[in-house]
Specification:
This protein is of the alpha+beta class and 234 residues long. The protein has 6 helices and 17 strands. It starts with a strand and ends with a helix.
Length: 234
């Protein structure tokens, strides 16, 4: 860091919190600069000592983004919170958090990063980032089912955004979502009297699951990362 920077951006750049969460922590009095409570407009300059909940926050030397193939049975939560946490069986070169979630009974692509700003932008619903899934249900996929899924389904007191749905097999379809409601695909299918028996995310923005095996990860770098950041910025 060679210039002053807003405290929420400092915390986000350090990989501690997203900017939104940083603002909440500042408002709650959990952030200090040189021993003084930080405010929303506080600036950090080189040499300042920033603490969050009493722990010193240091600038991050570099940012990393990984593509991970989450196996069935793993949970998107902290290592301390759940015995089935993804972080109990996954050791990355740097501490990271997950971008979005996949539930315990779902598998496939999960992005992991120590870049709080990137994570926050990718998860903003208004940005309409694409996520693609392969889904198998308990009975044949009909033309009416595809039409209803693509036009929008009433769940969670709202109607889902129109989306692209393509039949892939008798009981299988692909779906591209641009929103991330809780257990969205499962709820959409339930509302149409279908039950999901297999769900795998295969793409997020430009990042493909590809040949990654369950439990494997790879770092996203170069042009692939540049394009992903471009998606996050729009």
């Amino acid at each position: 860091m060679n210039e002053q920077i807003r405290i929420n951006k400092y915390l986000s750049s350090a990989g501690v919190l997203s900017r939104r969460k940083a603002d909440e922590a500042i408002a709650a009095g959990e952030v200090e600069i040189n021993g003084m409570k930080a405010t929303m407009g506080s600036q950090v300059v080189p040499g300042d000592v920033v603490t969050y909940r009493g722990e010193t926050v240091t600038p991050r030397a570099s940012v990393h983004v990984y593509a991970y193939n989450k196996p069935l049975g793993q949970v998107c939560t902290s290592k301390e919170a759940d015995k089935d946490s993804i972080f109990r069986s996954l050791t990355l070169p740097v501490p990271c958090t997950y971008v979005g979630r996949l539930d315990k009974n779902s598998q496939g692509l999960l992005l992991l990063t120590n870049d709080g700003d990137l994570s926050n932008e990718l998860q903003k619903a208004r940005n309409h980032h694409e996520k693609e899934y392969v889904v198998r249900v308990d009975k044949p996929v009909t033309a009416q089912f595809l039409k209803q899924m693509s036009e929008g389904v009433e769940i969670l007191d709202t109607v889902t955004r129109p989306c692209k749905v393509v039949k892939q097999g008798q009981n299988t379809f692909r779906i591209i979502l641009t929103q991330g409601l809780n257990r969205q695909i499962r709820r959409m299918c339930d509302a149409l009297d279908y039950k999901v028996v297999f769900l795998k995310r295969i793409r997020e923005c430009n990042i493909l699951l590809g040949e990654l095996k369950p439990g494997e990860y790879r770092e996203i770098q170069g042009e692939e990362l540049r394009i992903l950041r471009g998606h996050a910025a729009h």
